[in-house]
Amino acid sequence: MDSLYVKLFVVALLGGTGVMGKTNVFDRKMLDYIYNSTYDRSHIIANWTGWGNSSSTSDPCLDKWHGIACVEEGSVHYVSEINLPHHELFSLPEDIQGMKYLSALIVSENDIERSGFPMGVFAMQTLEHLDISNMYLLNLTLPTKLEMPKLRDFYGSRSRINGLFPISWETPNLENLVLNDNELIGYLPSDLGKSINLKQLFLQNNKLYRNFPPEYGNLHQLVNLSLVQSFQSQYRGLCSSIPSTWETMFSLEYISICTFGHLPDYIGNSWQQLREFIIVGGEYVGNISESLCNLNLLERLDFSYCQFIGEIPGCIFSIPNLVYLDLSHNDLSGPIPDAIGNAKNLGHLSLASNHLNGSLPNSIGQLSSLTSISLEDNSLIGEIPSEFDALRSNGHSLTVYLSYNMISSIGSGLEQFFTYVYGDYYGNPFQCPLPTYVRSATCSMCNTGAKHNSCEECVSAGCGWCSYGPNCVEGTHQGPDNRYTCPEDYWSFQTCRQG
Predict the structure, then answer these.
(1) Does position 291 have pLDDT exceeding 50, yes or no?
(2) What is the rounded CA–CA span in Å between residue 446 and residue 472?
């Protein structure tokens, strides 16, 4: 009777099928493989409950092995989650696809290379969460057709994944697709427009090209979109006009793209949730649309290097939450709007390298949150207004860049401003003598702002041209540019001649 009792007990314990304790034998075998594919076992033994113990008394599910979650089917437990990021793994089992209840595989920041990664992972019909980011999966090519009906999260950034970007996406439940900073090539598939639950799409810094699919207008729940390819790379082909169908991306909060043409007028009315709007390397025809002023939640606007023309809309500075504005390196002209003083939360402002003219607005002194202002390389004239002194008392460290304009004088009461605020004011025709507290600036009697027809005028004013540089500034190594015209043939001072 005793032996019969023991046999019945064992049968009951094993469920009559291939189980060890309460965990399915196959799943246990896969876990043992993972353990044996670890470089530093002492680290695992010291920190993981149960791992490395091949005894039948240690059960992955019942003993709650570190990084393992399970589900129960009848009297058998199946592994449903493997969560082992940064655990010095170098390989996954080739048969991992047979783990029929596995819904989460999180193995980021391990030492797994292409040879240790089974392609069967991309055929797992139960998988909901896949994280293979921050690894060296060089030569790993994704399947042309990705058919994973339950997949919700696919994280694979910075893993050297290459080859063609999948064309067919049968992923109706996909919410997060993060494959940035890889070596993927090809074009954006229209099929992703069927993944209507998509919330995050990060594909920046790959080698993708072609146009933006109009079908992405179906992604009404999309919150974050980043498609900018490597800026210093030859692969900048993923640059397109924004389709009219994207008007229905009502949930967008962050977008970073390369685009050209006209900005659609619908943006200001349809993308009302937008908080960050970044355009890299765009080529525009036309002005900055005033419709952007309707984006009341906008915090960051970066339209640098985009070839915008025309004047800066004053209403931009009335966006209540704006903290970062970069419109540098465009072809903007006209004066800086007086409305700039309305941007009470603005911390970073760059309008550098445009064609802005007119005087510096006194209202700049009202920017109580400012930490950096860059207005260099424009055609601003007049004086640095006394109101700038208010900027030093806002409790923030501040940098001011006003170099290479046509500013000629310093307002009164700015001694403390120039003493405590770091700034660069070189390349301006300041009148002599400059106050002793003004640093990073030079003056010259010949710097009147007028173009010199010959060096004789400059010589008669008591200063000379030097052999290089953008200005006629006494006592420096700076020379003429297109604002202070004096061709080299007319240089009079022998000591300033090259050679």
Answers:
(1) yes
(2) 7
